[in-house]
Amino acid sequence: MPANPPFDDTEDNSNAPGLVASARAGDNAEPFSVSEISAQLKRTVEDRFGFVRIRGELSGVKRAASGHLYASLKDDKARIDAVMWRGSVDRLAFQPEDGLEVVASGKLTTYPGRSNYQIVIERMEVAGEGALLALLEKTKQRLGAEGLFDAERKRRLPLLPRTIGVVTSPTGSVIRDILHRLADRFPSHVMVWPVIVQGKGSAEQVAAAVRGFGAIEPGGALARPDVLIVARGGGSIEDLWGFNEEVVARAIAESPIPVISAVGHETDTTLADFAADTRAPTPTAAAEMAVPVRADLAGWISELGQRQRAATGRTIDLGKERLAARAERLPDSESLLQPYAQRLDELAERLRRGLVDRARTGRERLAGLRLSPAVLEGHLRQARHALAAQRLAPQLVLGPLARRRESLAALARLAEQLHPDKPLARGYVRVMAGDGATLTSAAGARKADLLRLKFADGIVDAVPQGRSPPAAHRPKRAKPSAAGQEDLFG
Amino acid sequence: MADEKPDIAEMSFEDALRALEDVMRKLEGGEVPLDQSIDLYERGEALRAHCQKRLDAAQVRIEKIVTDSEGRATGTVPLDPE
Questions:
Q1: Residues of chain B neighbouring A215 (CB-CB closer than 8 A)
Q2: How far apart are CA A186 and CA A293, in angstroms?
Q3: Residue A391 carries which DSSP code?
Q4: d(CA A52, CA A239)
Q5: Res A475 pLDDT > 60
């Protein structure tokens, strides 16, 4: 601060705003810096409003990626910004949304950077049942508009489920009631998916259980339920609130397995009930819807068995009667067969007779064909006659033979007369050469060395005049007479 | 007429019971020829036996689901709710 500000002594403008701010005597308030005043204000606000509860309507609800929740609380005249850190948001028992009247608890603080004040909410609750019901109604309208509660979506429950899935607390009267009633009606396989059914996190657990049952693969190691029961005992609207949460309603509506809901008492209707395929007023009633009474079924099946036997029996009896009625009208078998039997007999007789006849004619023909000696003898006689008729007469041969014989004798006589030596007896001589060849000419005789003169009674050799007898023949032919004689005889 | 005849062993109790009731209606209607009615009766008996078997097999088994860290059902343990 300057000790002597300029112009201060020349004018007294104490009451009028000067151009330049100055410190004066008696001025005990030094000006604050913005930060100072902001800090003071922050302290004051936080001290004074360290814990407040504010009732107001939520507006501009926004959940940041960080998990913090930003919103405003407002009434008809004012609004105050609100922030809820993630840790607190996680403890909320409901989903904050615009228009919901809440009571928020926390402390007021300021945000000096933007000259803001706001409430840091630590707890937030719905402002009374009325507000809660209003919220419920709003959610219901919204989901209903989506078709989540449509009647067409409702599925029929199986008549007799093999496995029943129950989403509820594993302890307490609800599960006991369900199991007892199931056991009374039809002993069944029950799988309980344990959940908390009240307070923070209950909605998420119930939704996860419903989806978890639906995710069990059919035919896997775990039996997949054929029907689900989502149950909770009675309680205040607050107690039941988890079953009014959108996440639960959606899980039930989307469940691939039909769902029976049994939440609270008959008068309480939650969104879970709206979304379910069937709503049961109590857990016990849910068990009754889930399974039939075994004894009733057994009785019905047994009755069906009897009726079916009876009905079939009736049909058979009826058939028997009709058969009998027709059988009576049938001609008896003998009379039906008689003409044929007669005909058969007739034919058999004819066959027999025909065979005998045939045999007889055959025999007769055979007898007729039999060779008799008489026939053979007849044939033989005939043949003999024929042969006899054919016999050669000796005359046929002898005649010609005699003639030929005479001719031959004549020829022989003639030949005898004609024999060249025949004339020898009458004095003729046949002259032959030494070799025996007949000489027929004097010329031939002259050339021959030896002539042989054949007489009728012998041969005489002669030598032509002037020729000497051939040496070779000399000894033999030298003695013409004696030797010749000897030769002739010797 | 019962044209399609699924394998009875594969039928659910409900389907088998409904089929049995159908058989019943036809038999009691009395308009089924005799030989067909005998076939029907045999089928009805098989259906009845199938249903009865299911009833006879009924027994109590109470289990509690065990989940893994991701919330999937991985098995069961016996549950005693008392």
A1: 72-73
A2: 6
A3: P
A4: 26
A5: no
Residue B81 placed within a domain: no
Asked if residue B46 belongs to a domain, the reply is yes
- ipTM of the predicted assembly exceeds 0.90: no
Residues of B in contact with A221 (CB under 8 A): 75
Range of the domain at B29: 10-76
Q: Does B27 sit within 8 Å of A212, measured CB to CB?
A: no
pLDDT beyond 80 at A214: yes
pLDDT at A253 over 60: yes
Using 50, 70 and 90 to split pLDDT, how confident is the model at A207?
Answer: very high
Q: Measure in Å the smallest separation between the Cα of A174 and chain B Cα atoms.
A: 10
- Tell me how many domains chain B contains: 1
Asked if the Cβ–Cβ distance from B27 to A319 is below 8 Å, we say: no
C-alpha–C-alpha distance, residues A276 and A20, integer Å:
76
Among the partner-chain residues B12, B14, B62, the one whose CB lies closest to the CB of A190 is B62
Which CATH number characterizes residue B70's domain? 1.10.287
The structure tokens listed for B32 are 């089924």
User: What was the pLDDT predicted at A469?
Assistant: 63
Mean pLDDT of chain B: 82
| Rounded Cα–Cα distance for residues A210 and A259 (Å) | 9
Enumerate the residues of chain A whose CB falls inside 8 A of the CB of residue B40: 312
Residue B39 lies in a domain: yes
The 10s digit of each residue's pLDDT in A114-168 is 998 999 999 998 888 888 888 888 889 999 999 989 988 899 999 889 899 999 9
CB contact under 8 A, A160 and B13: yes
Distance from CA of B62 to the nearest CA of A (A): 5
Asked whether residue B1 is assigned to any structural domain, the reply reads no
Which one of A193, A304, A318 has the shortest CB-CB distance to B21? A304
Helices B13-29 and B34-56, axial angle in degrees (round to 10): 150
DSSP letter at A277 equals S
